[in-house]
Write a structure and sequence with these properties.
By secondary structure, the chain is of the alpha/beta class. 49% of the residues lie in helices and 17% in strands. Strands 3-2-1-4-5-6 form a 6-stranded parallel sheet, sandwiched between helices. A 4-stranded antiparallel sheet has the order 11-12-10-13, with helices on both faces. A 3-stranded mixed sheet has the order 7-8-9. The chain starts with 5 loop residues before the first strand and ends with a strand.
């Protein structure tokens, strides 16, 4: 059991407020500061943070400081927090690490720099603002910690991360930026590009979005993210994002050639490899035999999701993942259930006994 911390949150958006809520849940005292007074007021009401009127007031007497501002401001705010809070370990949550560390190193004294620990909680969604915050955002997520940070300071941040329910992973910051360019930043680019393409085509085909099925909605969910936030992120990680886009274009071009050549085995092989990789990604480490995906059509009415999950509970089947896809016509939808492969038959049987009609996709 770690000792209670005095936590300061600078920047009370969705992630900052979620960290504050998780810290309060863990028994820590938490102060918050934001240059946006409305965001700060909402965060304090939602997360039980003590509001501060200045950065200096926020970090005074703190033991841990988390800088959760937009990426362009992070380095300067970290440096200021290190100067103002002489006894505190200061971390940040920026999704780009190398440029932030470079900025902090260039404006911070060496003795203060030892108290800085770059971090990145890999949580959140396309929603932003304190009104969408929740302590559960941090539950079980990977929280990257700069492996070059001072050992004692990094240990302090790691202990906090574990205490609030996340999973710390130490990593080189350049490697972090290269990997998130693929698994975080590129999906945002792809989602935004696809939505932009469909919106452009709608000008000539006004019914195109009426035909949008679940797959389109899934792939374009991230397009609802904050343009300002993601513009900052992509530009801060420009080289890695550019390389990721190049690799993606190469993959698209290869698949295009297979389709144009009528190479059915090649197309099927490409889809099969991606499917196997996706199912492997979805399986928890404890699900060694893989997973199955069940597609369950459901009426759009109150309580139907509870019926599905209760059915799985009664059958003794654990749900590894769940997704709801609403029909654009309304009145119905589809639940995608991911269960351990060995439990798929029991899951199907139990659902059919409750008059559902599951279809096994994988």
């Amino acid at each position: 059991m770690t000792s209670p911390e005095r936590v300061a949150i600078i920047g009370t958006g969705m992630i900052g407020t979620s960290i504050g809520m998780a810290a309060v849940r863990a028994g820590d005292a938490v102060r918050g500061f934001d240059t946006d007074s409305d965001a700060l007021a909402k965060a304090c009401e939602r997360a039980e943070l003590v509001p501060a009127t200045t950065l200096r007031e926020c970090v005074e007497g703190s033991t841990l400081v988390f800088v959760c501002t937009p990426v362009p401001a992070v380095a300067d705010v970290v440096s200021e927090a290190l100067r103002q809070a002489q006894a505190a370990v200061v971390s940040d949550v920026a999704s780009v690490k190398a440029r932030v560390r470079q900025g902090v190193s260039g404006s911070t004294k060496a003795d203060e720099l030892r108290r800085y620990v770059g971090g990145h909680p890999m949580g959140g969604s396309e929603r932003s603002g304190p009104e969408h915050a929740s302590a559960s955002v941090l539950d079980g997520i990977v929280w990257v910690i700069d492996e070059r940070a001072d050992g004692d300071a990094a240990d302090r941040v790691e202990a906090f991360v574990r205490k609030v329910g996340a999973r710390p992973v130490r990593m080189d910051v350049e490697r972090h930026d290269r990997l998130v360019a693929i698994v975080s930043h590129l999906p945002q680019v792809a989602s935004t590009t696809l939505m932009g393409l469909a919106a452009t085509e709608e000008a000539g085909e006004p019914e195109i979005l009426l035909l949008a099925a679940g797959g389109f909605r899934d792939l374009t969910r991230l397009a609802a993210s904050s343009p300002h936030l993601w513009g900052d992120i992509l530009l801060a990680n420009g080289d890695a994002v550019g390389r990721a886009i190049d690799l993606y274009i190469e993959r698209l071009s290869s698949l295009r050639e297979l389709v144009l050549a009528g190479d059915a085995p090649g197309v099927e092989r490409a889809f099969g490899q991606a499917k196997d990789a996706r199912l492997s990604l979805a399986a928890k480490p404890t699900v060694r035999a893989g997973v199955a995906v069940l597609q369950v059509p459901v009426p759009d009415r109150p309580g139907v999701l509870a019926e599905v999950t209760a059915t799985m509970s009664d059958a003794g089947v654990n749900i590894e993942d769940i997704q709801i896809v609403h029909s654009p016509e309304g009145g119905r939808g589809t639940v995608h259930l991911m269960v351990a492969a060995g439990a798929a038959e029991d899951a199907e049987r139990a659902l059919r006994e409750r008059w559902f009609e599951p279809l096994r996709l994988a």
